[in-house]
Amino acid sequence: MASVTGFGGAFVRAKDPKALYAWYEQHLGLVLTDGYFAFPAAGQRAPIIFSFFGQGDAYFPTAQKAMINLQVDDLDGVLDRLIAAGVTVDPQRTSYDFGKFGWFTDPEDNRVELWQPIDAE
């Protein structure tokens, strides 16, 4: 059965994402790669991503301060199961060279992102 395979990442709103990235680099030694921090994750096909978004960035609802990303082994299977259960699922699904993405809304109105890394197919 299609399932969640791990934590994909956390996306947090920031007043000044560039300055906050610099702060995390300076004080915690994190290394910015491709516009985000990436952490290797044992047992997962892809790294865990930690990324900042501007206050007005429309990637997830502006009223939402953070969005989680979960890795899945079968994006369509998980989203179809959620639809069958009556969960609000965004009909948009996107594909990139690093994976496929889809979204649903949890019972507290939080948008949650699902990511099927490309090598999980």
From TrEMBL:
Q: Which domain of life is it from?
A: Bacteria
Q: Which residues form the VOC domain?
A: 6-117
Under InterPro entries, the record lists: Anthracycline_SecMetBiosynth (IPR052164), Glyas_Bleomycin-R_OHBP_Dase (IPR029068), Glyas_Fos-R_dOase_dom (IPR004360), VOC_core (IPR037523)
Which residue windows are transmembrane per the record?
Answer: none
Which CDD domains did the record assign? Answer: VOC
**Secretion signal, residue range per the UniProt entry:** none
Query: What PANTHER family does its record include?
Result: GLYOXALASE (PTHR33993:SF5), GLYOXALASE-RELATED (PTHR33993)
Q: What name does the UniProt record give this protein? A: VOC domain-containing protein
In its UniProt entry, the species of origin is given as: Granulicella pectinivorans
